[in-house]
Amino acid sequence: MQDLAKECSEPDIIELTNMYGASKTLQTLFEIHSNRYDQTYHDIVKEIRDAVLKRLYDYGGTKQRLSQLLDEEQQRELEQELEEERQLERPPPVKPCEPILHEEIKQLWDMHDTMMNLADFPIIFRPLPYAFMDTTFVNDCQPNNWRKNFWISTEFQRVIATKGESLNPFLRAPRWIIIYRNEQLIFLSALEANYLIGCLNSFYHKQRFEQPSTTTLRLLVPRIKRIQSIILNTPTLTIPPSIKHPNGAIPFLIPLEWLVQLFIFNGTLYFETTDEQTAYCQCLSLCPKPRTMKEKEAFENGWIAPDGFVSNPEHRQYLQIRQVCFHNNLLKFIKQIIENRNNSHAPISSHVGSIILNSLKLI
User: Fold this and answer.
1) Per-position DSSP letters for 263-280, written without gaps between them
2) Which terminal CB of the chain, N or C, has fewer other CB atoms within 10 Å?
3) What is the pLDDT of residue 22?
């Protein structure tokens, strides 16, 4: 036990050479490694050591280098570190907007009332591109090319009351959608959605419908994983539920041509089917790889840009790109909106990331 205690105890005085090693000296490679072998306490195969030293002696030459028997931690302790003082200026605090629940929003659930013309209420409802007002995205989003039946409530866009601030960091996540009379799609704030949940559920349980409800509140989730539901078209998760009725009426499902613009708007990264991927590329006038022989010839002729965009209407017809919504290249905007929505760049391994970064379809 005394021997063990002595081995575990540390001397009161530690020499600098034991802590940091000897000073650096000029030595050949043979001398450096020979000294290192001498300082190594674990078992070393003598035959291997001698063979290594012989090769160093024969081929190491006479060039000398600075040597030091220090481990990495000791070397860091000896390095002179420069202290830097940085002052980070934080942005000033902003004031949130006071939420407002407009009467026109309260009327959306009543299916017995006359259908509203949303364009008659610009203080309450705005076209979808208005969501990018006071952001850097407003100039790149091509506001005239979004679907005319896509709307937002002005409360969806209102987030902070502080004037002069860019709203890029404050864009509201597009989660709640109301399908109004199966014709208009409106993005709502959480407060508005919370009010309509109660009204629609109450109306559904009090009435007996022979047909599915034409006004439904739905949740939209961006598909940021390969196997993930966007919930939007799940009949049992709409409010009220869009379940089958005794007379065989089919509930309203969001069509594919609507979905692709919603994918762009909410920063979706993955597709569920090949049809979604095809519709996405058609919407953006993209012709990514892999390409047919006809498309390869078009690329060699310069009809298809390196990023896959086809700008000429005649070339689009030739390549059978007939469902174009955005006639100018939207890829810059898509990269920015994905980064904003997901707080990260589009991974190149994702379906959308591969298309917009590599011009390559993965499914």
Assistant:
1) HHHHT----SSHHHHHHH
2) N
3) 58
